[in-house]
Amino acid sequence: MEADPKNYQAPDWMKAVNLAAAAATAPAGMAQLAAYYGPEGAAELTQWGIEKGAKGAVQLAKFAGVSAAEATGDSLKTTAGFIRGLADVIRNPSKYGEAIATQARDTFNAALEKGGEIAAEAKKVLGNVIDEAKKLGTKGLETLKFIAENPGEVAKMAVDGIKSMIESGGELLKKGGEAVLKKAVETLEGLQQGWENLKGAAKEKAAELIAGAKGALKSAVNKAVELGEKGLETLTWAATHPGDVGQMAKKALTDVLAKGGELAKKAWDGIKGLGAKGLALAESTLQTLQDAGGKAVDTLKYIAENPGEAAAKVRDWAGQTLSNIARKGGELAKEASTAIMGFGKSSPRSRTWEARAWMRSRIWPTRAASSRRRRSVTWETWPGWASTPPRARSTAWPNSGERWASWPAAPSTR
Fold this sequence. Notes:
Layout: H1 12-24, H2 28-52, H3 57-63, H4 68-73, H5 75-91, H6 93-96, H7 98-114, H8 116-135, H9 138-148, H10 153-167, H11 169-174, H12 178-196, H13 200-205, H14 207-226, H15 232-239, H16 243-258, H17 261-272, H18 279-288, H19 296-305, H20 311-328, H21 333-342, H22 348-363, H23 371-375, H24 390-394
Helix pairs in contact: 1-2, 1-3, 2-3, 2-5, 2-7, 5-7, 5-8, 7-8, 8-9, 8-10, 9-10, 9-12, 10-12, 10-14, 12-14, 12-15, 14-16, 15-16, 16-17, 16-18, 17-19, 18-20, 19-20, 20-21
């Protein structure tokens, strides 16, 4: 098989060799013949072989699902048979090798773009391959990914298949099929990255596929949100990803945390359960809560009391976010100030200790800074100052080992 019949008329002896080789190694040989010559070219070659009595031609027709008489009398039936043979190539690309598999995929694209009866048959056969792949779950996604890698009509059909798997994600999650939904998301992410790296006309051709992938990823996040507690694991997992799906999932996760309640607590438990992997997610999510409103303060209090492995970092992030909320003013400012004053403590003494610790964390690190900056830090800047009882204020001053003179700025009520 050294010449393309579209551009070069092979000599009869070469045609005979190709037919014999394809028949001897069928069905793989039949698929390779169709991938190389195209379904129509392979059908014409088979018809020629039967008429010339070439070795293997009749046997090849049988593999294509037609008799010798049908092969010579109805080329469309023979062409359809070779199209079905190509289906096995894209169903199992590793079985045939990358070169043959890529040719088969391109042949399907060419058939679909050609239109007419051949396109209808190719679409039907390809649709069956995609439906079979969808039923195979994670294993089938590998097939769909291969089909979709090269922009074209074939890729659109494969992406639609992946989208339908994601859109049925609710049922998958209910049945414990998180792995399939996650794999579908990862597959689309990988495809999207590949399409975006294309150049020139290929990149333009992939624009519709990229838009479709983004829509499907958004659908995956929405499905996880709709399922509430059952979708939290998938939502948290998605939020650790870079790119579009990660941003969408982070926003959705922030919305869950801002609403407070048991679902927010479970969402945080899921984040801290990721351990080190969840630290970046925890930090970015806690920062966005300062603008989330709702029951964000309640959630932050729960987070501070249940920080997980990275307790010091998480408490610091939660405390800083509460401070930011308090400084912004508005409805949540008083709640945030009270939360900082309490911050997991119950007794007045422990509250004043917390206040003192809060001040130290902001005053002593500034010793190397200018005196003007140090003087700007006062007790009144602590969000809990206004709501702290006078007696508690009086006990919040430094102990005997810390002289008043050492504090950058003491309040006028000293």
